[in-house]
């Protein structure tokens, strides 16, 4: 009796102490800076949800003996806040790598801190051309317009389209859409007959569409987000302008089809993620996501999911000697990582080399074009 | 010159102008009576669009019923707006207060405050993105007329603009309430001394003007299929420009100026980048103010 009580006590103490001890000493910590409040909170919240799915899966898989933890910090899409968080992360010796931030502006502000202190930073969405060039510590998991433009240019040439009109919103991003497409398209022997920029949120595209029609292009390449896209497509249909429309992944959103209805039929675009794909990892992610959400995940959460998985795979590769340096090298060595947004490798600048998916709207859904 | 391309741009310009005119009518009516810019008119327009949208999603009534629901919502919003933002500044009825510039500017600010509150509230409730509209309700079915294409919404908006103009003229010239509106807009104090109930008249003006604003909101919302909390801002600016160009208190002047604005925008897109087409509209405003300081139709004595 006495003996068994003592054993019991010892067992209890052990069972309480052991996991606590292993957690304190041996878990690997990763920081994630993202907007959880403020006017871009919906994106940050989605990133967090996607990261939780990836993390739970990784920790359950038992690839390494210790659990990985992600520490979330709310940057509110504010550059100053982003820098504060970055300082906090680099001061915490247990944190070996960082994910985020959401916007290019915040990511680039925080990047200066990570550059000085030497911490790997992998953003799921920062698409500014200069972000990945800041230092060897910066990586991103989003394609730039140079890549999308080149794929679209080739796609049009393959379809026998050589005369194209280009329109895009009047922003830095819009300019990069036009440049990213026009250069490769001209190299392939195409001709751009008309270029036009418009103010974001323009209600009436009909004057522009009429002008496009006047130039008789064989297709229109467009740089817009889904709301402007829906307006544009509806008005193209309304004016009976029978011109194929090509676009970028920015227009890829189910809401576009909801807003434009039949006018969206036939829209062609490049995307990195399609929830309707039947690859095993995509269906797994989509079904996990739908446990907590009503809708299928969009492209942004998918990119976050992959970014987290790339980071975790790098942790597994560097294990057991996970330091900031070894983790950076492991991320940089990522090759053909099979994510839900396609296979990813990084070039020497930390730019992702991804295969883009071509998609078109048929019967009210985005479907992959093989 | 009159090739199909130009005709098409002309048709687009007329339809744009009509949309601005629709909004400018109610705006000018309220200014004419109070001599104060009602900054919340753009939000009344948005409220009309959202009221119509909610009716559509709730019980899918015929289009005409949707329009009447928007009208009613606008009238109610106008009543509330007058009560909250304008009435408190009219509680002193002595001559000095009535002529006071500070009083008028305070009213201007309170209407701006109401507009911000209303817009932010709608963003909180509905989110700032485009709302989904049942596509069957959109009034953008194409109609081919020879080489040019218009949509059924153009005809509906033309019809309603004309109806509103004619109805308003009848109301202002023939009906007792219209006559008291004209009396108050000419000389509020004089009207008061003659026994006209100015408070009631102002409330009626708000109800009529806001009802028209809300009707414009749902029509334009269904025309473009774009209903969102900030939708009233741009048309509000355009209506304001049309009102100033038209001579501040002339409704026919505002309508004509709105048409000029619409045409200027669509035609200028042919000659320069579309991001500059707004500049052309404002250049017209500037030219009008320099050469006709009273506005195009403001020289006449008759107000409203």
From TrEMBL, chain A:
UniProt-listed InterPro entries: BCAA_transport (IPR051010), Leu-bd (IPR028081), Leu_Ile_Val-bd (IPR000709), Peripla_BP_I (IPR028082)
Pfam family, one: Peripla_BP_6
Domain of life: Bacteria
First and last residue of the signal peptide: 1-24
SUPFAM superfamilies referenced in this protein's UniProt entry, alphabetically: Periplasmic binding protein-like I
Stretches assigned to the Leucine-binding protein domain: 27-360
One BP term from GO: amino acid transport
Keyword Lipid metabolism found: no
Record family assignment: Belongs to the leucine-binding protein family.
Name used for this protein in its record: Branched-chain amino acid transport system substrate-binding protein
Source organism of this protein record: Cohaesibacter marisflavi
TrEMBL record, chain B:
Alphabetical UniProt keywords: Amino-acid transport, Cell inner membrane, Cell membrane, Membrane, Transmembrane, Transmembrane helix, Transport
GO biological process terms held by the UniProt record: D-alanine transmembrane transport; L-alanine transport; L-isoleucine import across plasma membrane
Bilayer-spanning residue ranges: 12-37, 66-86, 150-172, 202-227, 239-263, 275-297
Keyword Methyltransferase: no
GO MF: L-isoleucine transmembrane transporter activity; L-leucine transmembrane transporter activity; L-phenylalanine transmembrane transporter activity; L-valine transmembrane transporter activity
Domain of life of the source: Bacteria
GO cellular component, as recorded: plasma membrane
Matches recorded under InterPro entries: ABC_transp_permease (IPR001851), BCAA_transport_permease (IPR052157)
Xref: CDD domains: TM_PBP1_LivH_like (cd06582)
Entries under Pfam families matching the protein: BPD_transp_2 (PF02653)
Membrane topology, from the record: Multi-pass membrane protein
Keyword Metal-binding in annotation: no
Subcellular location: Cell membrane
UniProt family annotation: Belongs to the binding-protein-dependent transport system permease family. LivHM subfamily.
Protein name: Branched-chain amino acid transport system permease protein
């Amino acid at each position: 009796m006495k003996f068994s009580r003592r054993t019991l006590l010892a067992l209890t103490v052990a069972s309480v102490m052991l996991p606590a001890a292993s957690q304190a000493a041996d878990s690997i910590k990763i920081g994630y800076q993202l907007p959880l409040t403020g006017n871009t909170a919906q994106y940050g919240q989605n990133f967090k949800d996607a990261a939780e799915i990836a993390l739970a899966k990784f920790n359950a898989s038992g690839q390494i003996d210790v659990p990985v933890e992600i520490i979330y910090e709310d940057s509110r899409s504010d550059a100053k806040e982003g820098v504060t968080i970055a300082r906090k992360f680099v001061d915490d010796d247990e944190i070996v790598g960082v994910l985020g931030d959401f916007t290019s502006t915040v990511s680039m502000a925080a990047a200066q801190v990570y550059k000085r202190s030497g911490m790997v930073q992998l953003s799921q969405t920062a698409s500014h051309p200069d972000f990945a060039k800041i230092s060897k510590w910066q990586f991103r998991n989003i394609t730039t317009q140079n890549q999308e433009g080149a794929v679209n240019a080739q796609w049009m040439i393959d379809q026998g389209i050589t005369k194209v009109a280009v329109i895009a919103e009047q922003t830095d991003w819009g300019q990069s859409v036009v440049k990213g497409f026009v250069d490769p398209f001209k190299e392939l022997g195409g001709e751009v007959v008309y270029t036009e920029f418009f103010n974001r949120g323009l209600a009436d595209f009909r004057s522009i569409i009429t002008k496009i029609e006047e130039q008789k292009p064989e297709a229109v390449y467009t740089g817009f987000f889904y709301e402007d896209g829906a307006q544009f497509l509806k008005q193209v249909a309304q004016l009976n302008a029978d011109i194929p429309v090509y676009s970028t992944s920015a227009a890829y959103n189910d809401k576009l089809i909801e807003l434009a209805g039949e006018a969206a039929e036939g829209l062609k675009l490049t995307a990195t993620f399609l929830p309707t794909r039947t690859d095993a990892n995509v269906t797994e992610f989509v079904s996990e996501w739908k446990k907590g959400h009503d809708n299928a995940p969009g492209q942004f959460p998918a990119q976050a999911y992959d970014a987290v998985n790339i980071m975790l795979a790098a942790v597994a590769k560097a294990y057991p000697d996970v330091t900031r340096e070894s983790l950076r090298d492991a991320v940089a060595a990522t090759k053909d990582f099979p994510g839900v947004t396609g296979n990813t490798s990084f070039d020497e600048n930390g730019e992702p080399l991804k295969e883009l998916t071509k998609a078109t709207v048929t019967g009210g859904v985005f479907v992959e074009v093989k | 010159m009159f090739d199909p391309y130009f005709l098409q741009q002309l048709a687009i310009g007329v339809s744009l102008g009509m949309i601005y005119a629709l909004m400018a009518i109610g705006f000018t009516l309220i200014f004419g009576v109070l001599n104060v810019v009602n900054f919340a008119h753009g939000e009344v327009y948005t409220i009309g669009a959202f009221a119509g949208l909610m009716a559509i999603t709730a019980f899918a009534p015929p289009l005409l019923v949707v329009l009447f629901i928007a009208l009613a919502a606008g009238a109610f919003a106008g009543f509330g707006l007058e009560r909250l933002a304008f009435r408190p500044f009219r509680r002193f009825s002595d001559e000095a207060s009535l002529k006071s510039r500070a009083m008028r500017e305070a009213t201007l600010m309170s209407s701006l405050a109401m507009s911000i509150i209303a817009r932010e509230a709608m963003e909180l409730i509905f989110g700032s993105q485009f709302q989904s509209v049942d596509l069957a309700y959109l009034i953008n079915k194409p109609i081919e007329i020879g080489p040019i294409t218009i949509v059924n919404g153009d005809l509906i908006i033309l019809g309603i603009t004309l109806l509103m103009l004619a109805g308003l003229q009848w109301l202002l010239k023939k009906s007792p309430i219209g006559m008291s509106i004209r009396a108050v807009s000419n000389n509020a104090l004089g009207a008061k001394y003659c026994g006209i109930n100015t408070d009631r008249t102002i409330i009626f003006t708000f109800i009529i003007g806001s009802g028209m604003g809300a009707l414009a909101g749902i029509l334009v919302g269904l025309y473009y299929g774009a209903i969102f909390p900030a939708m009233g801002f741009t048309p509000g600016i355009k209506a304001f420009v049309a009102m100033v160009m038209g001579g501040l208190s002339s409704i026919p002047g505002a309508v004509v100026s709105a048409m000029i604005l619409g045409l200027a925008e669509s035609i200028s897109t042919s000659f320069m980048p579309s991001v500059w087409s707004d500049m052309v509209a404002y250049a017209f405003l500037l030219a009008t103010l320099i050469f006709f300081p009273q506005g195009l139709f403001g020289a006449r004595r008759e107000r409203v």
